[in-house]
Structures are given as structure tokens and as C-alpha cells.
Write a structure and sequence with these properties.
The chain is mainly α and 69 residues long. The protein is 80% helix and 0% strand.
Length: 69
């Protein structure tokens, strides 16, 4: 089986990277929403962070970066 020309491989890889970027962005937005809901359930971002074993700052940054629309 012959390997496709480098231009075709490069184009295909670029398209894949664009798809992955879009999916990552969507996942980050969904994650931020889940973190918001978790903070509401626990009563504070601090309590959620303690429960998850993460820093409060990391959770706040994730939520702030993707505000609800």
C-alpha cells in the first residue's frame, strides 16, 4: 500500500487537529457547567474543591473562562 503524498497527509492531520480543538472547547464548556452545578450543590467553590481534591483557584479559573451564555 502506497503512502499518500505529504501534502495530503498534512491536510488530513490539520483537519483532525481542528476537529479535536473544537471538541476540546466543547468539553471545557461542559466541564465548566458541571463545576458550576457542583459548586451550587456543595454550597461553595471551596467545598467543591475540597471534595474533588483540587485547588479552589483551578476550579474558579475553569468556571470564569467559560461563563454561561
Amino acid at each position: 500500500m502506497e503512502t499518500p503524498p505529504w501534502r495530503d497527509r498534512l491536510r488530513a492531520e490539520d483537519e483532525l487537529l481542528e476537529q479535536l480543538d473544537r471538541r476540546m472547547e466543547q468539553a471545557r464548556r461542559r466541564r465548566a457547567q458541571a463545576l458550576r452545578e457542583g459548586a451550587q450543590e456543595f454550597g461553595s467553590v471551596y467545598a467543591l474543591a475540597k471534595h474533588l481534591g483540587r485547588s479552589e483557584t483551578a476550579i474558579l479559573n475553569a468556571i470564569k473562562k467559560y461563563p454561561t451564555e
